[in-house]
Design a protein that fits this description.
292 residues, alpha/beta, 7-stranded mixed sheet, binds adenosine monophosphate, binds zinc ion, binds fe (iii) ion
Length: 292
């Protein structure tokens, strides 16, 4: 199965393992024709992604981002599509988030040393070309022989309830939606499964709709047909676009899906383009796709 659209993809500029240009090539090879690069809290991969996308005359690339926010007990990730990623104010805000990611990762490395699982900070940094994240710490843990896989690193040390976990700087979800709207983008709630399981999705959606949320991921990674249908109905009730993506990182693991390996229909993608057009944002994409 390959969908034409994949609106959620990571590169080495955050915690993906493919360089932006290689990610573009792989997505295209897989049959993806409308893609978004959505690195965590960073846009520095976009120039190389646009350059790589130029060489295909039927590939559309949307400038995107995935921003991390927190609610008590859970993380909330929000995707921004069609953002004005060159905005100076926006980039200053992202630079601040990079700094706070660095400080937090250093504290996690200290915790690991206290736990008897020392890793060199330089090794963590060697895996991170841009925004440093827990997966880079996981790779250093594997290299040092403390764990065998990224999943094991999360299960034993790095997950929210793990002994080496350190909180990130807290951002409210509304604040992040406002930031994305502030640079002319459209905001989509990412991977809602955990929020739904925690019983906090309904309240959050009410808050985020008021803040200007456009969509919610529905066709996501390993979500099965029953989950897709459930989230599609939640979107319908809340007048949100049911969007999605593979969230491909190239890290392997049982949940990983290749770029485009999700059942995302083209209709909600086209709806997203029409909304972007209404807001004068559609030109920010490298646009080869006919959505009307
Ligand atoms: P951070 O941005 O530093 O908070 O790290 C979060 C990222 O780690 C997520 O975006 C995922 O890519 C990855 N991640 C979270 N949980 C797991 C897990 N259990 N196994 C592998 N990767 C994970
Ligand atoms: Zn990630
Ligand atoms: Fe995410
Ligand atoms: Fe992601």
């Amino acid at each position: 199965m390959t969908s034409l659209g994949d609106l959620h993809l990571h590169s080495t500029i955050s915690d993906g393992r493919l360089k932006p240009a290689d990610l573009v090539d792989l997505a295209y090879k897989n049959g993806v024709r409308v893609m978004a690069l959505t690195d965590h809290d960073i846009v520095d991969g976009l120039p190389a992604a646009f350059e790589a996308a130029e060489k295909y005359d039927d590939l559309t690339l949307i400038p995107g981002i995935e921003m991390s926010t927190d609610v008590p007990g859970n993380e909330v990730h929000i995707l921004g599509h069609f953002i004005d990623w060159q905005s100076e104010d926006f980039r200053a805000k992202l630079a601040h988030l990079q700094d706070s990611r660095l400080g937090r990762a250093r504290r996690m490395v200290e915790r690991l040393a206290e736990l008897g699982k020392p890793i060199e900070w330089e090794r963590v940094q060697s895996f991170a070309e841009g925004a440093v994240g827990r997966p880079h710490i996981a790779l250093a843990l594997i290299e040092a022989g403390h764990v065998e896989s990224v999943n094991e690193a999360f299960d034993q040390y790095l997950s929210r309830t793990g002994p080496a976990y350190v909180e990130r700087e807290r951002l409210e979800p509304e604040e992040v939606v406002a930031t994305i709207l502030g640079v002319g983008g459209l905001a989509t709630l990412a991977h809602p499964r955990e929020l739904h399981a925690a019983g906090s999705l309904d309240v959050l959606l009410e808050r985020l709709r008021a803040a200007g949320l456009t969509g919610m991921e529905t066709y996501y990674q390993d979500y099965d047909a029953g989950e897709v249908e459930m989230f599609r109905q939640i979107c319908e009730r809340n007048e949100l676009l049911p969007l999605g993506g593979s969230d491909f990182h190239g890290m392997g693991g049982p949940k990983q899906r290749e770029p485009g390996n999700i059942p995302l229909p083209i209709e909600p993608v086209n709806d997203l383009f029409r909304l972007a057009e209404e807001r004068g944002a559609v030109e920010r994409a490298l646009l080869r796709h006919t959505y009307r």
